[in-house]
Write a structure and sequence with these properties.
Low-confidence stretches: 1-58, 71-79, 309-316
Structural class: alpha/beta
Largest sheet: 7 strands, mixed
Oligomer: single chain
Number of helices: 13
Distance between the termini: 33 Å
Mean pLDDT: 79
């Protein structure tokens, strides 16, 4: 179970500073950085000012597909509108198993991690999902895909390849009926695990022997102290929360139900924003692998509804009336 002092009101974080990543270089002090990947380069400061069309183009594509796939179910009144947000840390990775610092190294799940993802899918199988966001790392993507294999809606998660015009053309769906039975999956480097820099690939116990327990504990658990050539939790939070506010929260505001499959530190950052946690509270927040958390977004506020302790939702999630109605519709289709 998650051990922390959760609170219901929404916290507001004022973002300062710039993120740091092995895939992008710092630029223009605290207000801008340039992300460079295999397929595109974009200045984030310009993007936020509206001078770059990459995100806008991606959002148009995603909105078109997600509107086709959006879940609908009865509501008590027009004002009774709520959205569901599921947060899930990826299943156990091969470097988790070996007790190595992973960070942004792209390693897959273990067999146990696969089982955790499948079990997580059973636990959220009656919770509506219209869109999925994952990091750019395979362990989060595997978790998202495996989780949805267990969902009672039977819709197919499809990774959106909008990196360039050619990728978009190659992955285009030409059937409207198929689109309606699909769930768009958006991958975003902003949701990646925080970069552990020169610690990546090192055994955690051996690293403690080399640098001292206190120093390694500070790198791992402090909010603002980064490891050599790596990111602090604060730096990770800047990019993850900014992306959540700019890209994910608008989907919730529009009534879509969203699942985010990511990593312990990017999810800590998002939960810090959702629950208004302090920097002292967030560093002690534990998120086990493969354990989904459910939030309800309503009237501009996020309310935590619980985390599963067994393979079914009964007696685990505090169901809202809309969720009960959605489950009834699923049951009618299944039986």
């Amino acid at each position: 179970m998650v051990a922390t002092a959760f609170r219901h009101p929404v916290g507001i974080i004022q973002l300062h500073g710039s993120a740091s990543d092995a895939g992008f270089a710092s630029k223009c002090g605290h207000s801008s950085f340039r992300f460079i990947s295999k397929n595109f380069a974009v200045d984030v400061a310009l993007l936020r000012k509206g001078h770059c069309s990459y995100r806008q183009g991606q959002q148009r594509i995603v909105s078109a597909l997600s509107s086709q796939a959006q879940t609908t179910y009865p509501s008590l009144s027009n004002s009774h509108v709520e959205s569901d947000l599921i947060l899930i840390r990826h299943g156990e990775s091969m470097w988790n198993e070996k007790n190595l610092f992973t960070g942004c190294v792209d390693v897959p799940l273990t067999t146990r991690g696969v089982d955790e993802a499948i079990e997580a899918g059973k636990r959220i199988s009656n919770i509506p999902v219209d869109m999925i966001y994952t990091s750019s790392l395979i362990r989060a993507q595997m978790t998202a895909m495996l989780t949805m294999t267990q969902h009672h809606c039977k819709k197919v998660p499809i990774i959106m390849h909008n990196e360039n015009r050619q990728a978009k053309a190659w992955s285009q769906i030409y059937s409207g009926d198929t689109e309606k039975q699909s769930i768009p999956v958006i991958t975003a480097w902003q949701l990646n695990e925080r970069i552990y820099g020169e610690l990546q690939g090192l055994n955690k116990l051996e690293t403690a022997e080399r640098y001292g327990m206190q120093q390694v504990h500070e790198w791992r658990r402090s909010y603002s102290s980064p490891p050599p050539n790596g990111e602090s939790l604060e730096m990770c939070s800047n990019r993850a929360v900014a992306y959540f506010k700019d890209d994910i929260q608008p989907q919730l505001q529009s009534g879509r139900h969203v699942m985010v499959a990511a990593h312990v530190n990017s999810l800590r950052s998002i939960i810090m924003y959702l629950e208004g946690l302090t920097s002292q509270e967030v560093v002690s927040l534990e998120l086990p692998t493969g354990l989904p958390l459910l939030y309800i977004y309503k009237e501009g506020k996020f309310m935590r509804r619980g985390s599963p302790i067994g393979p079914t939702q009964a007696g685990v999630y505090a169901y809202t009336e809309d969720l009960v109605l959605y489950k009834q519709k699923l049951d009618e289709k299944l039986f």
